[in-house]
Here is the input.
Amino acid sequence: MNSNTKKFQTISGIEMQRRYTPQDLEDFDYKEKLGEPGEYPFTRGINPEMYRENYWVMGQYSGFASAREANQRYRYLIEQGQTGFSVALDLPTQMGYDSDHVMSEGEVGKVGVAIDSLKDVEELFFGIQMEKVRQIRTTANATSLILMAMFVTFAKKNGIEPNNIRFFLQNDVLKEYICRGTYIFPPKPSVKLAVDVIEYCSRHLSNWTPIAVCGYHIRDAGATAVQELAFTFANMICYFDAAAERGLDADSFAPNIFFFLGAQVDLLEEVAKFRAARRIFARLMKEKYGAKNPQTQSLKIFAYTQGGALTAEQPLNNIARVSVETLAAVLGGVQTIATSSYDEAFSIPTEEAVTVALRTQQIIAHETGVTLTVDPLGGSYAIEYLTDKIENQVYKYLQKIETMGGAISCIEKGFFQKELADSAYKFQKSIDSGERVVVGVNKYRDDKTPRIPIFKVNDEIAEEQVRSLEILKKSRSNNLVKKSLDKLYKAAEKNENLGAAIIEAIANYATIGEICDILREVYGTYRPPTVF
Amino acid sequence: MSRPIRILVAKPGLDGHDRGAKVVARAFRDAGMEVIYTGLHATPQQIVESAIQEDVEVVGLSILSGAHRSLVPRIIDALRTKGADDLIYIVGGIIPQDDIPLLEKAGVHEVFGPGANLNDITGKVISRVKELRKSRGEEM
Here is the structure.
């Protein structure tokens, strides 16, 4: 096969030239396109020293079964050197169902920890020096106000000023409608609740991250790198516009936000993607939102090595994939990295697998030398070309999304969902045809059944949680719970910020299900259009 | 095939990852089948009602959350109770090898894990339906 017939495309379909030269960067102006690290437009990095001063936060995503078991995994990984962590929540918790709800059957504690009330949070953080952890994330989206309330109340009860613990709330419900599924209410009230979190944090919790606008999940659902950024930015614009309607300007909260992006295995494209993301963000903040503060204009990125690139076949190969993905994130200058474990096509990770994933970050940080200088690939003709290309394609998409009425309108029309379904199908066909090689899957196969230990969550956790709930409901003041739920209902009807009311309900040991049922009454539920 | 295969693709439970279900649904459609897709968070009751109302021959269940051990047998039992006796059941998602015998015992015919090839999946479904129709003395 000669180079005329073979396609040279990135996994996102960008055609790669044989080589790049200065001719490919005709308009290139260092100050305009790149700037110094820490200077607008922050293409090279959001601060001058980057990893020379501080490594990125190494924070693994973990959690399963009971709070007690999840706690053990966090403490183990902290001992192994992780500097942050993410509390994985089970699906009932993310969807506002208690462990004893009929919809929770078979789901309790399976993909994350089961949290029904404040009682579960107390066990979650036992024995951890919370203020010393650089970042504590959680995947609460539709239920972000409730988890916020739980963390605030937990801190207060333990004599800690809540703002001294660096919590990081995902709080990005829009992507849930597009590709992840943990939505409860319709889009407009859900965005209102998301902005409640942003507003509450901007007033009371200035060290917290009130929102991480997500592209990772959109990417995992089939998006190209361009779609990943475009849809993320479109969602961001929706939140920012909703915040502005409430008088919250970008300078008042954007310094604290993050983007949560994937780190895929196509290294050059990913490095360009991260750089383009920073440049686009800086320009949007400055030109669309009038931000003057460099802290507002500089985008903080949390990157997770893309799970979708991992295979069930020959699972140890995934260690190599995750290494390349991590390297892409580091060369891309991100602020936090979580690395996938090699067994995650099978189950949530074993202790051994998650340790290897953490060591991958540590090896890249300490042994490879890529952290000795900022933005080492800056100035590469290929990387600068790709950065510009991705940036331009993202702007084209954003224009289209704007003419379609913005993110919520696109969600309600099924536009994002159709784009993803098309990309995913195209990608799958390219693998089935062999046009795109996935090692171990459509080339270099062996027909051995993988023999690796697989983590199993025991099924008894559901029973334990149900029993705990029964005990809770007998030992708390149900009168106080009822009063605080009534108060919440009234506050929701009056369209107030629900932060205070939910904190009060949580402190009285109202359950997630009880609180969400009130909100379901007020806002209703929703199903986006189904397109494939 | 004398009449198109009708297949229900369902996402039971709370798992929201539907990339696989959608890609497979589309492959079935491209292969000439009539596909009904439930969308997310389908309850067992909704799945049973859909399967019967839509008069499908094949029911595909996609679960990545680990809830398959309880949801899959429950759905199959519920369908049998309602008299839908000889449906073909296929399951996709994250299904540990160790759980496959349990699912087969519950009545599942094929389990397709990550890395399954679309032609393979549609091929197996078509041949299962052919077998079933033959055993019923139906015209192919």
